[in-house]
Amino acid sequence: MQTIITSSRTRDTIILALFALVVLTAPLWGTLIGAGYPDLLQKFAIFGLFAIGYNIMFGLTGYLSFGHAAFLGVGSYTAVWSFKLLSMNAIPAVLFAILLSGLFAAVIGFLSLRRTGIYFSILTLAFAQMSYNLAYSVLTPITNGETGLRVLRDDPRIIDTALGIQVEGSPLSDFFGLTLTGYPGFYFCAVMLILGFWLSLKIFRSPYGMKLLAIKSNQIRMEYTGFNTRPYLLSAFVISGMYAGLAGSLMAITDPLAGAERMQWTASGEVVLMTILGGVGTLFGPILGAATIKYFENIFSAFNEQVLQQAFDFLPPTLTDLMVALTRPFVGEGWHLTLGVLFMIIIIFIPGGLIEGIERIRRLFSRRRQPPGENSPGSRSHSPREPAA
Amino acid sequence: MDAFLLQILNGLDKGGAYALIALGLTLVFGTLGVVNFAHGALFMLGAFVAVSVQNLLTISKKVKDESITFFDAYKETPYLEIWWGDTGTALIDYAVPISIVIAIPVMLLIGLAVERGLVRHFYKREHADQILVTFGLAIVLQEIIKANYGANPIPVGAPDIVAGSANIGALFGIEGLVYPWWRMIYLLFSLAIIAGVFAFLHLTTFGMVVRAGMHDRETVGLLGINIERRFTIIFGLATIVVGLAGVMYTPILPPDYHMGMDFLVLSFVVVVVGGMGSLPGAVAAGFLLGILQSFFSMNEVKSILPGIDQIIIYLIAVIILLVRPRGLMGKD
Predict the structure, then answer these.
(1) Is B122 at the interface with chain A, CB within 8 A?
(2) Residue B132 maps to which CATH number?
(3) What ipTM is given for this predicted complex?
(4) B86 in a structural domain
(5) Are A125 and B146 in contact (CB < 8 Å)?
(6) Mind listing the pLDDT tens digit for each residue in B102-133?
(7) Could you tell me if residue B128 is inside a domain?
(8) pLDDT tens across B217-231, in order?
(9) Does B301 touch chain A if contact means CB atoms closer than 8 Å?
(10) Which of A142, A185, A260, B211 has the smallest CB count inside 10 Å?
(11) What is the count of structural domains for chain A?
């Protein structure tokens, strides 16, 4: 665990500046790894935000919520309704989405946080499934059911009409005249991601974040010290719900459409996967996890037999066939299998996720360079934490 | 009144499935203390045992169709029919009952492998870790099934003799009350399995030791009993129960790779409503929620409370958890 108090202000500023630099230059380095197109980069940013927010709840307080997809869905629907009723401008859409999903999170959190552990997980799951089922059935006037909510040309758009802005062709979201598709869309998401990261950094470094961590390590002792933990938990839940709402609105901004499937519990499962894969409770882990999953989803699902044949072409023919046969189930349609296997390996061997993995490799190398005899770390000390049987 | 009775009957077989899944889930939680998110996937595996058996029985070869004389027509005839004639046809017809016999050893092996290979390492880890690793396992299992059987539901038929519906209305003197035979069989089957599990736990020495271990694992261990090994067998038993629930459910719902996830959420709700770790609670809650679900999907109810059928189960779970967190029959 990183030390939280000792890190100075300047160090945080440097971290933030470096983060902003990496995010804003994503189109450049993205090209190198074959991810240099706005669609994918937008996904990195949006799911990164979703995972950062989720991490504030799960990473800091240890409460495992299985219902965050509901807030994502609420954010998307709100954004699309803002497009339909008010304006195609992205700012009101984002603001309303954050507000409404925060409100939703406050209600659901208020009820769910009465219980802890597995009961909390089941409660959030139940609420999310209720929202999903309702969005599919009775709330069709609001959500447009299975078809999904779309922005239409003859929607009222009060503000746009008042300002005399006309929509030509199919309506697209904009930022004061700048149409948010392609790279402008990515940069809008990127700025939101940097803002979101900044807030999460602040929370991690604040006494508030410390208290959330204290709840994770021992809630009862925290209560005995005289703290009422409920307001802390609820506010953390609302904040992470707002992040999810923001991510949902960004989905609607980059593609003005909202569907109920975004609220399904497997979507909540996905953000759990991302957070764990990257490193739960770390600053960068969730973003890393989200980017990794979305990157491999894109790369792996595009693989097919020919690509594999080319990849193993350097081997003798029989070996090539063998390797292709072996790897075929893991790519293309079956990339979820890779994800599942990878996820299990992470949980079993490196519960700290990719961040812990990187940290271990770094330590391994830095110790190797030390002169022999100083302290002799056997490879044993690096071996994965063996769970007690 | 007829409609009401019919809805209760419809709820009973669904409730039977919920009860069986929740029973296994509770067994595993009560003995091993593990929250098993792969339980739904095991249900799905059971259903696919039936699919595999049907596929095996109907391995076919092209045979010339003698009834068509204008041109050379071929039709697929299963080897079993070629070898044994009518006996073969009957065997194919009884694919689901045959699957039950085959599913028992198969599911036992799968269960033991999962427990020894994976779950064992997570006894001492947090519930969150257990949920996550079994969730990962569930993804892996369902993707393996998807890769081998495709993404579409595969219909598996019940034997012809019970394909129709029973006119049970005649028994009570009510007109037009029919109920599919297979659903009735499912209900009886689930009751039999539940009775079997309870008898096993309450009437055998093995079951007595297991119950003692559920109550106080450490003391049982101190008495020199290898409780770990018995719990492993209980995990296998839970896998068999859920697998059989899956096998028998195939004629009601054609299985696809995703069915486990759908049932998982519902069965967790059932377990929580019944009370974590309480076996009678799981069974009672399973039937109760099944009946309530059918009852609230009646048009009369839906017209008063639109959409209630979609959320009733979750609503009940939320109310129970908030008002009575131990569940209906849970102990402290």
Answers:
(1) yes
(2) 1.10.3470
(3) 0.81
(4) no
(5) no
(6) 999 999 999 999 999 888 888 888 877 888 88
(7) yes
(8) 888 889 888 888 888
(9) no
(10) A142
(11) 1
